[in-house]
């Protein structure tokens, strides 16, 4: 008997630690940052420092542009960039995410500055950060992701449109107006009017922004940085007089301390919650998106929310703009090779040093160049790809309503309108029941109802039921996951009235018994209830006789007389009919694909022919997963015993040599008739069965050799023989040269299983001792 069924993996390879057929997940991690181990100095120097410099180059122009579009002091954008990088980066739950001022908050901040002033807006930012901090501590991070993506994308698109419409005026040499309608009203005149040097600077910036990403091998240098640098050089080279960035001579003296807002307290609270909500949603969605860009540790959303809250409190206290996690800078960070949070923190340090020692350089940047960067940023927030995706998922109305509300009303009203439409759409979908009425055969009709049947769908249900002609045999087929009293009453009243006119109605409940329970005065209130077994799961005798049993039970309660069921129906024909009607449409795509590419099963499954053992059922597998051989007693005749045309041997060779299966499973079971016959006799000599069961004699000898073992006490003798028979068949498999060679090369694993029928439980059989252990996905077989 061999000691193990798995050969040692060759040097340099990694043995799989999963169950048979599972993918190898033991691959080597790429770096310290990806594996989750503490970062080393070499990783920071090689990966994070270069990445932080790239992110710094893209963050400076964007931060200045966002501050300008918001109507805030220019230094506030740089303060937010530094604080967001250092504070949020140090505390981040998403280490590779980069935080700073975001275009998505521009419209909100601009409105607050217009209403409360800049100093009061910084206090509202601080208050919004405190709200975020509380949300993170109370583990509300994932709740923010419950917001419909259609609302989020509609909100961002609306903000993008507002930014683009306002900043295009600056590019054209004019001034942004106070509202979208005013910007739209003045835009035609601005386009055809006289344009000064600022317009030329904007055109140059646009050209570089569009052309630079198309030039090979230079994409590592951010296009906004190049565009602003070129526009600045052009403005200086031609001596153009244009509005430029204005920073205080002494940066520290330019800090604005927050002051308490004056005005409506309710409006101030709403403003703070708006900052917290929008910043949280944008940050968390960005963190989820960044997770898809790398293979390192996944984001802790609650911790990230705490980090964002702390950063906003610090930014507000120092006179900075609100902070969020930003996907543009974060994706640049990952693409530049960052591996740890050090990159996000360092980029803030570089910005601070740049402002303190090279602030005069920033004051050379034309405002039109920053406006052009923001126009393109705003346009890109209106994503056609998101529109197409939402159209395919029938969420486009939510997107349109949110977009229009943000553009023409304000951000809060737009988002609330979008949420309202999303809720109405979800309610309509959840409560919508589809009704199909069709003629099955002469005098026989079928009505199929799918979905949740509540009062909102009763009118349509009754309308469709009335289409059935009088005096017919009707099957009312209910695929219903919930039925309220109005739904039950509509069906019952129609059924009673229809049967009074001479027709017959049979209610066929496929997934649950909502109608039957309500009819017997035992209605349920919860939507998800354990009901009838699915028909592929239950024996023919269960579901084909179900209706007769239910009707007899009802008759004993109500005293009614019901007709006898139609005689002569073949259970297999009924089963195949059910498959063609209900299961075939679901499985057809898989079978069609398998027919095209052929079979590539991951398991060769040897088991008994016992009708109570269903391999696909106990392994939760489907078409194409198992290559199966079944015989009396799940026996594998030894290869060294002369036999002619052994079907088991042929199956083994085909599975190992042609299909190259990685696993062979031998599965025995309790209450096995073959093992009882081997143990107690009673098989007539000279029969094919007696000849076949001689292959079980080595298993019987093993059983007698093991009698008296302590672990035999709790099993019936024939069940213990079934377990040892599995061990013997694993030994027999090793007599086949192709099997032995594949096992020794590590290409094949042999596994023993035992299925307890009465307990519906599968056990793993130890190939040496025959002891049973529970199935555990983490167990190495």
UniProtKB/TrEMBL annotation:
Domain SLC26A/SulP transporter residues, every copy: 45-401
Function, in words: Catalyzes the reversible hydration of carbon dioxide to form bicarbonate.
Pfam families associated with the record: Pro_CA, Sulfate_transp
SMART domains listed in its UniProt record: Pro_CA
Top-level lineage group: Bacteria
Major place of residence: membrane
PANTHER family reported for this sequence: SULFATE TRANSPORTER (PTHR11814)
Signal peptide (residue range): none
EC number: 4.2.1.1
Reaction(s) catalysed by this chain's protein: hydrogencarbonate + H(+) = CO2 + H2O
Spans traversing the lipid bilayer: 49-68, 75-96, 116-138, 150-172, 192-212, 224-245, 265-290, 344-362, 368-386, 398-425
Alphabetical UniProt keywords: Lyase, Membrane, Transmembrane, Transmembrane helix, Zinc
Membrane topology qualifier: Multi-pass membrane protein
Cell compartment(s), UniProt: Membrane
InterPro entries in UniProt: Carbonic_anhydrase, Carbonic_anhydrase_CS, Carbonic_anhydrase_sf, SLC26A/SulP_dom, SLC26A/SulP_fam
Protein name in UniProt: carbonic anhydrase
Family, similarity comment: Belongs to the beta-class carbonic anhydrase family.
Region described as Disordered: 1-42
């Amino acid at each position: 008997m061999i000691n193990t069924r798995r050969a040692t993996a060759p040097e340099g390879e990694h043995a799989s630690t999963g169950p048979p057929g599972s993918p190898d997940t033991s691959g080597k991690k790429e770096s310290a940052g990806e594996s989750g181990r503490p970062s080393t100095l070499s990783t920071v120097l090689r990966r994070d420092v270069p990445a932080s410099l790239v992110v710094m180059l893209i963050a400076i122009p964007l931060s200045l542009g966002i501050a300008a579009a918001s109507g805030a002091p220019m230094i506030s954008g740089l303060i937010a960039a530094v604080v967001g990088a250092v504070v949020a980066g140090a505390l981040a739950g998403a280490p590779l995410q980069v935080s700073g001022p975001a275009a998505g908050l521009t419209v909100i901040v601009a409105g607050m500055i217009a209403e409360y002033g800049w100093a009061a807006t910084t206090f509202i930012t601080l208050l919004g950060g405190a709200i975020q901090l509380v949300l993170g501590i109370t583990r509300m991070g994932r709740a923010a992701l419950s917001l419909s993506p259609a609302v989020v994308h509609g909100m961002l698109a609306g903000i993008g449109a507002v930014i683009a419409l306002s900043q295009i005026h600056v590019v054209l040499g004019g001034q942004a107006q106070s509202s979208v309608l005013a910007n739209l009203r003045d835009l035609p005149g601005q386009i055809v009017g006289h344009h000064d040097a600022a317009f030329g600077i904007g055109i140059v910036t646009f050209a570089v922004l569009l052309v630079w990403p198309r030039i090979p091998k230079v994409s590592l240098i951010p296009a906004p940085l190049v565009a602003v640098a070129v526009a600045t050089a052009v403005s200086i080279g031609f001596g153009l007089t244009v509005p430029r960035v204005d920073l205080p001579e002494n940066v520290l003296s330019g800090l604005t301390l927050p002051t308490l807002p004056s005005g409506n307290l309710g409006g101030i609270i709403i403003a703070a919650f708006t900052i917290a909500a929008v910043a949280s949603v944008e940050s968390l969605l960005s963190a989820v998106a960044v997770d898809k860009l790398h293979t390192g540790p996944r984001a802790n959303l609650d911790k990230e929310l705490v980090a964002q809250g702390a950063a906003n409190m610090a930014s507000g206290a120092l006179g900075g703009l609100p902070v969020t996690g930003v996907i543009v800078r974060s994706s640049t960070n990952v693409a530049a090779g960052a591996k740890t949070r050090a990159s996000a923190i360092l980029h803030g340090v570089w910005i601070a040093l740049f402002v303190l020692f090279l602030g005069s350089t920033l004051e050379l940047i034309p405002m039109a160049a920053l406006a052009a960067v923001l126009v393109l940023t705003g346009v890109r927030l209106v994503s056609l790809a998101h529109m197409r995706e939402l159209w395919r998922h029938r969420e486009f109305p939510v997107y349109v309503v949110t977009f229009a509300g943000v553009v023409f009303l304000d951000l809060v009203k737009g988002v609330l309108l979008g949420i309202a439409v999303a809720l109405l759409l979800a309610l309509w979908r959840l409560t919508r029941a589809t009704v199909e009425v069709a003629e099955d055969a002469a005098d026989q009709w079928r009505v199929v109802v799918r979905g949740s049947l509540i009062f909102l769908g009763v009118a349509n249900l009754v309308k469709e039921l009335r289409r059935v002609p009088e005096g017919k045999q009707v099957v009312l087929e209910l695929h219903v996951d919930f039925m309220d009293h109005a739904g039950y009453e509509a069906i019952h009243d129609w059924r009673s009235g229809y049967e009074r006119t001479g027709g017959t109605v049979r209610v066929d409940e496929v997934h649950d018994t909502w109608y039957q329970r309500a009819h017997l005065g035992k209605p349920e209130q919860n939507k998800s209830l354990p009901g009838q077994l699915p028909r592929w799961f239950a024996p023919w005798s269960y579901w084909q006789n179900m209706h007769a049993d239910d009707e007899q039970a009802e008759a004993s309660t109500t005293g009614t007389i019901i007709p006898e069921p139609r005689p002569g129906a073949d259970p297999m024909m009924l089963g195949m009919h059910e498959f063609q009607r209900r299961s075939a449409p679901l499985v057809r795509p898989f079978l069609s694909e398998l027919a095209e590419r052929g079979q590539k099963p991951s398991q060769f499954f040897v088991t008994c022919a016992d009708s109570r053992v269903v391999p696909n059922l106990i392994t939760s597998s489907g078409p194409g997963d198992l290559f199966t051989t079944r015989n009396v007693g799940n026996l594998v005749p030894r290869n060294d015993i002369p036999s002619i045309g052994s079907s088991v041997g042929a199956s083994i060779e085909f599975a190992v040599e042609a299909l190259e299966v990685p696993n062979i499973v031998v599965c025995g079971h309790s209450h096995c008739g073959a093992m009882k016959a081997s143990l107690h006799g009673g098989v007539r000599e000279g029969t094919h069965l007696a000849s076949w069961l001689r292959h079980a004699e080595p298993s019987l000898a093993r059983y007698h050799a093991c009698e008296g073992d302590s672990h035999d006490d709790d099993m019936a003798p024939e069940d213990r023989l079934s377990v040892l028979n599995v061990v013997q068949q694993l030994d027999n498999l090793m007599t086949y040269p192709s099997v032995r060679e594949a096992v020794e090369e590590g290409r094949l694993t042999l596994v023993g299983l035992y299925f307890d029928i009465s307990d519906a439980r599968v056990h793993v059989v130890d190939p040496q001792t025959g002891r049973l252990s529970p199935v555990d996905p983490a167990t190495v077989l």
